[in-house]
Write a structure and sequence with these properties.
GO terms for molecular function: ATP binding; kinase activity. With about 375 residues, the protein is an alpha/beta fold. It has 14 helices and 16 strands. It has a single domain, classed as Ribokinase (UDP-N-acetylmuramoyl-L-alanine:D-glutamate ligase, 3-Layer(aba) Sandwich), CATH 3.40.1190.20.
C-alpha cells in the first residue's frame, strides 16, 4: 500500500536524517532551541535548506562499548518503532539529491549517540535506497530489528524546490510491520523504554500494529510518544485525534511541537492539551516552542526552560533530538522501566527542570549545524 499524497507549497515539512539536510522525514517544527543570531523561518514560509550533508563527528562505538558507561547511570536500552525513509530533493536547477530521513530514525540515532543502546523497528525495502538507510543507521550504532527489511521499495518523500526555496512534496509511503511469530522472534524480550511517533504511529495499516506493540511493552517498559503530525497524510482529523488520544492512554511521556498542538487544539490553549494528556494517564507532557524553549506539565506542576542562544544553521531534526534527550535524561534519573512508573508519576519539579535543560541543550547543538546531526555524548561532556 503506497499512496502518493501531494503537499502544497509552503512550509517545509519536519525532518531529515542525522547528518542530513532539508527533509520531510523528521521533526524540525521549530521545536529545537533557537537563536541569538540566525533565525527560525516562520511557519508557512519555510525556505529549503541547501548544502551537502553533515558528517558524523565520531565513528560509533561498538555495541559492547555502548553497553557500559564509565560513571553515571547504567545504560538503558530503547526500542524505537516507526518509519525510516528517503528524502529525494529536486532543486530548482535540476539537481537531485537523496538523504535518509524519518523522525523515529532520528530519535534512534540521537539515543545511540548519547550512549543508549537503540534498536529500530521500521519498514525498509530491499533496494538500494534501503541499503543507504541501513548504512546510515549503523554508522551511529543503531541496531536494526530483523524484519525491518522486506521485499519492495523503500518509502520516499519527493521534494521539489522552487526558485524561492519553497517546496512541493509527494509522499510514497509503505507502512506495515511483520506479524506473528516472525515479529515475536525478532523483537527484544524487554527494553527499558519503547518510543514511537510520527507517520508510523497513525498511518495504516502499520499503526494498528504499533499500538499493539506499545501496549505489549507497557508491562515492562516506559513508553514515549511524539505525534509529529503530517496533515496531508492523515485524512479525517477527528479519526486521527481519536487514534492519538488512544495511544496517549498507553504512554508515560508525550512530546509535541507547538505546530502539532495548533492542529490538535485549534483554540490555541496548548497547555490545556498537555493537561488533558496527563488526565489520560501520561506522567510527563512536553511542548516544544522553537526559540521560546520548552514547557512541561507533570503532577509536580509546570516547568519551563528558555532555549539556549545559538546561531541556527537549520532546525532539521531538532524536535527528534529533544525527544531522544528526554528519554536519555529519564535514564540518567533511573526512571525508565515499568517498575519505575510510579516514581515517574511522582517526578519532582527539580528533576523535570533538569530534564528540560538537558533536552534544550541537546536540541541547541542540533540546530547549530546543518541537517539533523545530533550530538554525541562526548561533545556534551566537552571531551
Amino acid at each position: 500500500m503506497s499512496p502518493e499524497v501531494s503537499k502544497p507549497r509552503g512550509r517545509l515539512p519536519d525532518g531529515g536524517a542525522a547528518g542530513a539536510r532539508p527533509g520531510a522525514g523528521g521533526d524540525d517544527d521549530g521545536a529545537g532551541p533557537g537563536a541569538a543570531t540566525g533565525s527560525l523561518t516562520p511557519p508557512c514560509s519555510h525556505s529549503a535548506r541547501r548544502g551537502p550533508p553533515a558528517q558524523p563527528l565520531q565513528s560509533a562505538p561498538s555495541a559492547r562499548a555502548r553497553g557500559r558507561r564509565t560513571g553515571g547511570s547504567p545504560v538503558s536500552s530503547v526500542l524505537v518503532i516507526g518509519e525510516a525513509l528517503v528524502d529525494v530533493v529536486h532543486s530548482s536547477d535540476g539537481g537531485v539529491q537523496e538523504y535518509p530521513g524519518g523522525s523515529p530514525l532520528n530519535v534512534a540515532i540521537g539515543l545511540s549517540r548519547l550512549g543508549r543502546p537503540a534498536q529500530l523497528l521500521a519498514h525498509l525495502g530491499d533496494d538500494a535506497r534501503g541499503e543507504v538507510v541501513l548504512a546510515h543507521l549503523r554508522a551511529s550504532g543503531v541496531e536494526v530489528v530483523e524484519g525491518t527489511v522486506r521485499p519492495g521499495a523503500t518509502s520516499t518523500a519527493q521534494a521539489t524546490l522552487g526558485a524561492d526555496g519553497s517546496a512541493t512534496y509527494v509522499f510514497d509511503i509503505t507502512w506495515e510491520l511483520p506479524e506473528g511469530a516472525a515479529l515475536d522472534a525478532a523483537l527484544p524480550e524487554s527494553a527499558a523504554a519503547v518510543h514511537t511517533g510520527s507517520i508510523g504511529s497513525w498511518y495504516e495499516p502499520g499503526a494498528a500494529a504499533v499500538s499493539r506493540l506499545v501496549q505489549r511493552y507497557r508491562d515492562t517498559a516506559t513508553t514515549t510518544f511524539d505525534p509529529n503530525l503530517r496533515p496531508s497524510l492523515m485524512g479525517d482529523p477527528s479519526l486521527v485525534r481519536q487514534r492519538i488520544d488512544a495511544l496517549v492512554e498507553h504512554c508515560d511521556v508525550v512530546k509535541l511541537s507547538d505546530e502539532d498542538a495548533d492542529w490538535l487544539q485549534p483554540d490555541g490553549d496548548h497547555e490545556a492539551l498537555l493537561a488533558s494528556w496527563l488526565e489520560r494517564g501520561a506522567s510527563l507532557a512536553v511542548l516544544t516552542r522553537g526559540a521560546e524553549g520548552l514547557v512541561a506539565l507533570s503532577r509536580s506542576g509546570r516547568a519551563e526552560v528558555k532555549a539556549p542562544k545559538v546561531v541556527v544553521a537549520d532546525t532539521v531534526g531538532a524536535g527528534d533530538s529533544v525527544m531522544a534527550a528526554l528519554i536519555d535524561g529519564l535514564a540518567e534519573h533511573d526512571l525508565l522501566g515499568a517498575d519505575k512508573r510510579q516514581a515517574l508519576r511522582d517526578i519532582s519539579a527539580d528533576d523535570v527542570q533538569t530534564l528540560l535543560v538537558h533536552a534544550a541543550r541537546v536540541g541547541a547543538v542540533t540546530v547549530s549545524r546543518p541537517g539533523a546531526d545530533p550530538p554525541w555524548r562526548r561533545e556534551l561532556l566537552g571531551v
